[in-house]
Amino acid sequence: MKAVALDIGAGTVDFLLYDDGKPLENCVKMVLPSTPRVFATRIRKSTEEGVHLFIDGYTIGGGSLASAIRNHLREGLPVYMTPRAAYSIRNDLDEVRSMGVQVVEEEPDGFNGMSYSLDEIRLDVYEELLRDFSETLLDVDFVAITVKDHGAAPPGMSNRLFRLNKFREMLSEDNRLERFLFHEKDIPGYFLRMRSAVESSKSFLPGKEVFVMDTSSSAVNGCLGDYRVAGKNPVLAVNVGNGHTMAAVVSDGRVLGFFEHHTRSLTGDKLVGLIKKLGDGTLTHDEVFNDGGHGALILGDMPGFSEIKLVAVTGPRRGMLEGSGLDYVQAAPGGDVMMTGTIGIINGTIRRLQSKV
Predict the structure, then answer these.
(1) What is the pTM assigned to this prediction?
(2) Sheet strands (E) in 215-294
């Protein structure tokens, strides 16, 4: 089986061309700057040059991109965006308009400025590079993509709260970790970024199935693929990403509870405290949400932190826990911590496909 996986985070996009005919360590892997950051850099240059902007394309991650656009507007420079591109900034177009962005269906007549077309998948770019190394994406069995999608919340509702509520609904029905994994036909309508990722993939590989998973949950799933972690129950898996941190207690592949916070709001000691409270089942949603995080969810009886068999930590900001006194394993499936998310979604997708055979 062969597949291409992209794990698109706040800092990097991690690429894996998985081929089960090779040792995992020999598969093609790349770690590149995240696409939103790339576009943000280009927009900042346009701001320095004082040019007007027209932006179309797909819905991608906001973050640094949104900040660059806000700065452009503060300089008194106009920004025109198509609706799909504008959803990259906020999932409510009225909020985007209130920032000063002019939401339009097409490039205005007589426009004289810089145009950008947003796309964070860009499989054609990878294919062009791979051809020089006698590799190709054209024969993959499926495409696997992980992104952070807060979802389009109803007007007036916090997108952090909306995201947690949707996770609660999903896990109440089925608390397997792979409940976060969607086939292209099953993505809820409110996950605009996920749906855009599928559209972009299909534009280059129209005949290939696409699977999409949340970045945090794919990293947690990837932790379980580390040979030192596999088979241990219960496990407390932690992904300290560039933008978000997620910790989840998992037993036999089922999520017993988790929390999600913004990494910039954490310190090593603070994170350890949250981890231990999660394991004990005493962590509340309000404690995380009121601190600016997404929240916490306890689905049932927690084992108690002392009963956790192993704490597995991954992610580019995992160094935050060095010297914290927490006993943990640095999970790196395939020997590469930056591939944890891609391996997490690949493993989950293969299990789903095999279960249908």
Answers:
(1) 0.93
(2) 235-240, 244-251, 254-262
From 51, 105, 44, select the one nearest 78 (Cα to Cα).
51
Q: Are 217 and 246 in contact (CB under 8 A)?
A: yes
Compute φ and ψ for 19, nearest 5 degrees. -145, 115
Would you give the end-to-end CA distance of the chain in angstroms? 14
Give me the DSSP letters along 127-158: HHHHHTTT--STT-SEEEEEE-----PPTTS-
Instruction: Domain ranges for the chain, please list them.
Output: 35-118, 227-352
Nearest to 236 by CA among 317, 327, 343, 345: 327
Q: Are 195 and 189 in contact (CB under 8 A)?
A: yes
Q: Domain 35-118 falls in which CATH fold?
A: Rossmann fold (3.40.50)
At 83, the amino acid letter reads P
Strands 12-19 and 2-8: antiparallel
| 251 Cβ contact partners less than 8 Å away, ≥ 6 residues apart | 233, 234, 235, 303
Structure confidence by residue, pLDDT tens digits, 181-199: 999 999 999 999 999 999 9
